[in-house]
Amino acid sequence: MTKKKNEERVLLFNNFQRACDVRNRVANVCGIANNTVIPICKALNLPILKPSVLEWVNDEDAFREAFISKAKKECANSGGYIGNVVRAAAESDFNTQLKFHPYQVMRGVTKLAADEEKLIALKGESFVVDEAKLEEYTNVYLTDPARIEAYHKCERLCEYLNEFFAGNIPANDAFSSWATFVYPTPEGFKVNGRADFSKLITNK
Q1: How far apart are CA 31 and CA 103, in angstroms?
Q2: How confident is the model over 63-111, as pLDDT tens digits?
Q3: Which residues contact 192 (CB under 8 A, 6 or more apart)?
Q4: What average pLDDT does range 118-134 have in this prediction?
Q5: pTM here?
Q6: How far apart, in Å, do the first and last CA atoms of the chain sit?
Q7: Distance between CA atoms of 114 and 130, rounded to whole angstroms?
Q8: Which of 11, 46, 65, 142 has the smallest number of Cβ neighbours within 10 A?
Q9: Residue 167 burial by CB count (10 A; 0-12/13-18/19+): exposed, middle or buried?
């Protein structure tokens, strides 16, 4: 999420389940890249570029054609014969490497959204999940000014309740009892004079 200048946002929580799902998809792509695409690139002297590797993770045919195109260009530059012989030789070389480094999953199921591709970092000659970007990507924020204002009101209420209980925070099942000390009226909240105030005494 891009934060505009002077735009306030409040972090609510990290969507852990979404983070796990996204991490699994991104890690799967990294695995195919590291175990298949990148080793073949190194063996066939293809440049290891993030956009190309991400494409070839899902498209074996495009990967093969990229190498054939490279072989044809190199042959042309050296004045060699261009045609079916070059293509056949290049295709044979590619298929040999593919036997050593086969795809382990079905291609097409690992296609990432553009935002998810940004969660992959190329470190040296390996793809890794960028955990810092993943955390930011799956954080849930408040950005609506009215909701942020309401959130800050709740923060102030929590601060007051912490002061009110003076560290003697009741258990969850007893928390509703604090409401017996006050009650709402049209004029606002008032103290319930019949409440047992001894329950609020903190032993120091």
Answers
A1: 10
A2: 999 999 999 888 876 666 667 788 899 999 999 999 999 987 655 556 8
A3: 180, 181, 182, 183
A4: 95
A5: 0.74
A6: 47
A7: 15
A8: 11
A9: exposed
